[in-house]
Structure formats: structure tokens, C-alpha cells
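Trying the structure run again after the queue cleared.
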Amino acid sequence: MKKTDTTKTAKELANILDISDRRVQQLSKLGVIPKVARGRYPLIPAIHGYIKYLRELSIEADAPSDLKDAKLRSEKARAEILELEAAEKASELVHKDHVSRVWTSITGLIKAKALTLPSRTGADVYAARDLNEVRAILENAVQEILIELSETEINIDDRSTDRELSRDNADSVDESQTAAKIDDQSMGG
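Done. C-alpha cells:
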């Protein structure tokens, strides 16, 4: 029986492992493929080392994928938060509590103006001769209210709280704490 040579050259090993000669040398320098002599590599330990190396790459490729996804989600969330903070500072974004206070003020104003309709039109409607005249009186009064509402300036103080708004509705807050002032009068609700 003839004993076969168990060492291979870089070129022979590269052919077996389906990689380049240069890659065999690089993996040898990294300690993945053992070297027995100049340009000679033990066949079985070299194959085992290369398989172990590929397995480690596979495991590392899987784990960092999940880690990369988590880091990517974290970075996206962080970027969204920074964008929202920048938009808020640039007055492009308004906090929902502020919007709620503004709309509470606006709806209170509309309600107050709408409730004046009967007192504004009662006598004229009573004196009207027919239904068309009543309709015209009411339409004119509604138009006047809408014009008043469109010309009303509403100033909302960002520092106001719900408690201050409640006091505004009771007309008991001084000017520095007023959450909504309409034509220099506190808004009723």
C-alpha cells in the first residue's frame, strides 16, 4: 500500500475548498487553516478549520441580523423622536393638550354667540309679517354672528392649564393667567 501525502499546497487546497490561493494564505494567517511547512497545509485539519470558520460566520451572520434589525428600529425611533422635537420647537407641531384648549375656547365662543340669537332676533321675529321675513331676519342675524366670529382674535397662552381655563370660564383669572382672551374679554362657556 502506498501512503498518500496528507499535506497539500495552497493551490491544491484552494481547489479542494473552492477558494483562491490567496484566500488560503489569508485564512492561514488568521489561524483558521493550519500550516505545517512553507506552502504546505495538512489536508484534514485544514478542511476542519475551514468548516469551523464557515459555521462561525453563519452563526455570526444570523445573530447580527437580529441585532442589526433591533439597532435599526432603535435608530429609527430615536430619529422620529428628534424630528418630532424639532417640529415642535419650530412650531410645526402642537401638543394635543394645547389643541384641546384652543378648540374648547373656540367652541365656547361659538356657543356663546349662538345663544345670543334669540335675544338678537326675538322682537324682530315677533313683529315680522310672514314666514319669509322671519327667515330673512334669522339669516341676517346668523350672518352677523358668523362675521363676528371670523373677525374675533383668539389668543391662547401655551402655559395655561385646564384649571386656568376653568377659571377663565368663571371670569376669575387675572390677565397674566388668561388662557383665552377674545377682544379683551374672558371667554364664557
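The helical segments are 10-17, 21-29, 43-89, 96-115, 117-127, 131-151, 162-169. Worth checking whether this holds up in the mutant runs.
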